[in-house]
Specification:
heterodimer, A: mainly alpha, MetI-like fold, two-stranded antiparallel sheet, 13 helices, B: 379 residues, D-Maltodextrin-Binding Protein, domain 2, 3 domains, eight-stranded mixed beta sheet, two-stranded parallel ribbon, 47% helix, disordered N terminus, TAT_signal (chain B), polyamine binding (chain B), SBP (chain B), signal (chain B)
């Protein structure tokens, strides 16, 4: 075999374990889900095999699913916006700090050492009727009766921001780190103020990082079901809760499959749009 | 398939004329030879069952099982009990459906409707009752209802019973008010934002039946029921999804009133919380069983069931989990604590409890669970 042919094969050999894993763990199960979405659930809970479009008809034409999907996308958009507003200054601070960057990044990663569910549930002890905030407000005399702060859409968004903020900060940080700091100085030396140099130079150059962080936050929050389950009220369900309910509570795997593919299609379109305009390279940088 | 079934099938084929006499006798002979050869090793093969998987409701219930049943059983037999939990039988059935035969073995199911549903999905095993002599101590009525579902055979042993009644915080709601309002307190606007409820469609429909003055096992006006469920949803702070969440919401005073599981409320009372408990007329009674799933190592499972039904184990578990055992109080002395537990029936007839009719509930399961899912989310 020629050296050229061997060099051509080498990347594929190196990639093959990952490709096998992705095929077996992602594409094959996905194919099963596609097949399932055309089956039907019988009255006993067993599945009826075949090719039926009933689940797709229901998923695409029923306003119930459309409304929850829109509500999910709205919550995901608000979460992403809050993460961007809160995350950018934090990332900027870390990127521009001198000497203690490693410590700050370590602190940023610390929450990942604790389970996401535990982190979500911790808000119950903070915002609950007998939680830390109510206790403090009563102690300092600001209120007499505890405030009802939990189990609404705001607490769902709060829980999501808590979970996703580090993803945003990391992506923006990576983008800011790659900007040559002398560009800001150059802008200042040409007469712009610090604020102008930030707006005209730094912010535009860091936008790919912001977009990558935004994409991650949006996709992850739109697909969550734990946060609304733990911190939401009776009507704060998101689309993934519908998938969970169809599959687990109603034992309707075919409908659950159709719903999960619908969510995948919406989020997939978003990722493809991002890739078309910005490319996936920035996202990979942010993921380390 | 056991040997008896194999012989019966063989005999049927012979009688149908599918096998000639010579072949039939030859196969019987071969089977006999195989049995003779394997018998000396069978004991070792059965002994090879190293573990049995048990899935239950978690929390104080699982703690009681671990402490009083699984630990001593493993010590005695050397068979490990892998102890899993679930939030409800719907969730569990989904897991079993996705599993390989034999992966899940025994489940602590609630209600005859669950038993019928699992049997309907082809998950019922067939217990050899000779291997469970302690079954004789169980209240006959509890055994009979299961037999009816599976043509006289059993796939489970009854284990305990309880109720889903009304739990309320006595600091904010008096016993008199509860007696006066009954199930309707869950749709009382005076407690908006302080009401809870289990996110289980059966329980919601059951209580809506009581709130609308209908028979929970035969409601006629479903529109009124859905309206009552909507009213409850709009007044509720949270639908709880597990016993632990129920206890936390009540203990932390996030909610003042909800329906709740009798044993969990008793546990809260034991912890010193001033939580009252009341079964309204036609309150939701249920009986739990230990269901053996098809494909499980039957002898090991039967041994575990027999061990768990032994009066000393059963009483200890009942005292730990706060649900009365299925043991017949006219045959067994249940000690001092059990007669104080909510829903306990000293006569063992259970006439005072209303159980869910499996035909009625399972017949509407597909339609109602879906409809409730929508209403729950604001529709």
């Amino acid at each position: 075999m020629s050296v050229e042919a061997r060099e051509k094969r080498q990347p594929w050999i190196l990639l093959s374990p990952a490709l096998v894993a992705v095929t077996l763990l992602l594409f094959v199960p996905l194919a099963f889900i596609v097949v399932y979405s055309f089956w039907l659930r019988t009255a006993t809970g067993a599945d009826q095999t075949g090719f039926f479009l009933d689940n797709w008809n229901e998923a695409l034409s029923d306003p119930f699913y459309r409304d929850i999907l829109i509500s999910t996308l709205r919550i995901a958009a608000i979460t992403t916006l809050v993460c961007a507003v809160m995350g950018y200054p934090a990332a900027y601070f870390i990127a521009r700090s001198k000497g203690n960057k490693a410590l700050l990044l370590l602190m940023l990663m610390l929450p990942f050492w604790i389970s996401y569910i535990i982190r979500t549930m911790s808000w119950i002890n903070i915002l609950g009727v007998s939680g830390a905030v109510n206790w403090a407000l009563i102690e300092i005399g600001l209120i007499n009766e505890p405030l009802q702060m939990l189990y609404n859409e705001t607490t769902v968004i709060l829980g999501l921001v808590h979970f996703l903020l580090p993803f945003m900060i990391l992506n923006v940080y990576v983008a800011l780190e790659s900007i040559d700091i002398s560009l800001e100085d150059a802008a200042c030396s040409l007469g712009s103020t610090r604020w102008q140099s930030f707006l005209e130079v730094t912010l535009p150059l860091s936008l790919p990082g912001l977009a990558a962080g935004g994409l991650l936050c949006f996709v992850l929050s739109a697909g969550t079901y734990i946060t609304p389950l733990v911190l939401g009220g009776p009507t704060d369900a998101m689309f993934a809760n519908l998938v969970f309910e169809a599959i687990i509570t109603q034992l309707n795997w075919p409908l659950g499959s159709a719903l999960s593919l619908m969510l995948l299609a919406v989020l997939g379109t978003l990722v493809l749009t991002y890739n078309h305009f910005l490319g996936m390279g920035q996202l990979m940088k942010g993921l380390g | 398939m056991d040997n008896t079934k194999r012989y019966e099938r063989l005999r049927e084929r012979y009688l149908n004329g599918d096998l000639d006499r010579r072949k039939f006798l030859g196969l019987i002979g071969a089977a006999g030879l195989a049995y003779g050869v394997q018998t000396p090793f069978a004991r070792h093969a059965f002994a090879a069952t190293e573990q049995v998987r048990f899935d239950g409701w978690g929390g104080v219930v699982s703690e009681a099982f671990r402490k009083y049943a699984f630990g001593p059983y493993t010590e005695k037999t050397g068979i490990k009990v892998v102890d899993g939990t679930f939030g409800g039988s719907d969730e569990y059935i989904s897991r079993v459906k996705a599993s390989q035969p034999g992966e899940y073995n025994i489940a602590h199911l609630s209600g005859v409707f669950d038993y019928a549903r699992y049997a309907g999905l082809g998950l019922a095993s067939e217990l050899n009752e000779d291997n469970i002599p302690n079954l004789k101590f169980v209240i006959p009525k509890l055994v009979d209802v299961f037999r009816k579902v599976t043509d006289g055979k059993l796939s489970c042993v009854p284990y305990d019973y309880g109720t889903t009644g009304l739990a309320y915080n006595r600091k904010h709601i008096s016993d008199e008010e509860m007696k006066e309002k009954g199930a309707k307190i869950l749709i009382d606007a005076a407690y908006k934002g302080k009401i809870g409820g289990w996110s289980d469609w059966r329980t919601r429909i059951w209580y809506a039946s009581l709130q609308t003055g209908q028979d929970p096992n035969g409601a006629k006006n479903m529109d009124a029921i859905w309206d009552a469920i909507r009213t409850h949803r709009d007044l509720a702070l949270k639908y709880w999804t597990s016993g632990a969440e129920l206890m936390s919401l009540l203990a932390e005073e996030e909610i003042y009133v909800t329906e709740g599981w009798s044993g969990r409320i008793y546990a809260l009372q034991e912890q010193g919380h001033d939580i009252g408990y009341m079964d309204p007329p036609n309150g939701f009674g249920w009986q739990e069983c230990l269901f053996v799933i098809k494909g499980s190592p039957m002898e090991a499972c039967e041994e575990l069931l027999n061990f768990m039904l032994a009066p000393e184990t059963s009483i200890a578990v009942a005292e730990g989990q706060n649900y009365p055992p299925a043991l017949d109080p006219t045959k067994i002395d249940l000690g001092k604590k059990i007669p104080t537990l909510p829903a306990f029936d000293p006569k063992g007839t259970l006439d005072g409890l209303t159980f869910a009719d499996p035909t009625y509930w399972n017949g509407h399961e597909q339609e109602w669970s879906k409809k409730f899912g929508r209403i729950q989310k604001g529709y």
